[in-house]
Amino acid sequence: MQDKTILTITGSDPTGESGIQADIRFIAELGYTAVSAITTITLQNTLGIQEFHDLPASVVGGQIDALVNDMQPRAVKIGMMRRVETIETVVEALRRYRPDFVIYDPVLFSSRGERLMGDEALSLIRKKLFPLCSVIIVRNQESKDLLGDMVLGNVCFIDDDNRHGLSNGFSSSLAVSLCEGRTVEEAVSNANDFCKRQLAGTTVLQGRSTQLYNDFVTLVRQEFAVKSDVASYADQLNVSSAYLGQVCRRIAGRSPKNMIDDAIVKDIERQLTKTPHTIQEIALSLGFSSQAHLSKFFKNIVGTSPSEFRMGNGNGKCEMGNVKC
User: Fold this and answer.
1) What are phi and psi of 72, to 5 degrees?
2) Is the Cα torsion angle 156, 158, 164, 168 positive or negative in sign?
3) Which tens digit of pLDDT belongs to each residue from 276-320?
4) Residue 104 in contact with residue 137, Cβ under 8 Å?
5) What are 253-276's pLDDT values in tens digits?
């Protein structure tokens, strides 16, 4: 048995802020060796999780068997498990291999508040996994959802509002302390101290979203008259259209296309009320194929035709085709 080896079973966070990556980093920092079995692959960045890809239970079980047969870690640390089949597989492995310590750090909600497991999975965890755990780490804000009416003596409550992934440091330190022979109370105290040091000594990973959003807004102001497709803006900013959409929705609550169209509409309104240009002239200046094309675009967004808008805003002109009247 490897006294300084800890097996972590959880999802992957490609940012490194939580999940398998954070566990490996924290466990290594504490002087132990981490081996890992991945349950879920996430498409994730600093804006949050976009997609989950849960690995088949047989693959999760195969990872555990390969590692435990060879390394025999004293402690097993469990995080994200979303599928009933995966939970059953992990429970079976714990019963078969009987590690000295099992620390469960449930991941019930994402950082954006999305529920990550269904009721059936949660019921199975309460019934079959909880009895095998040395310590169950529960975030205060998730306690009712996770525990329901259960009263357990091996629960450690934490407040994880401070930073995404902080509980990874807490549970990793807890696992190490238990392997070192400390009591649960001593291990919890050490874990709290470790997390305080982490908060004092590290910074939160920052993406480029705010700067990118500002650059996009500036670019739209400069080029909306000649460029209306999102992909061309994304190419110019050297990002994917999907990521640009994420950023705009997170910061402004709107899609990039909405923002481009809004800039075009505002300029149409300006020209309709402040200039003598015909609708046909405005259409050509903004790259529309025809007056009819502009009129359809404008009415879909504003709810009225360009001519009606012009008349309603005191310009005093009406238009039929290219003829002013």
Assistant:
1) 50, 60
2) negative
3) 999 999 999 999 999 999 999 999 999 999 999 998 876 555 454
4) yes
5) 899 999 999 999 999 999 999 999
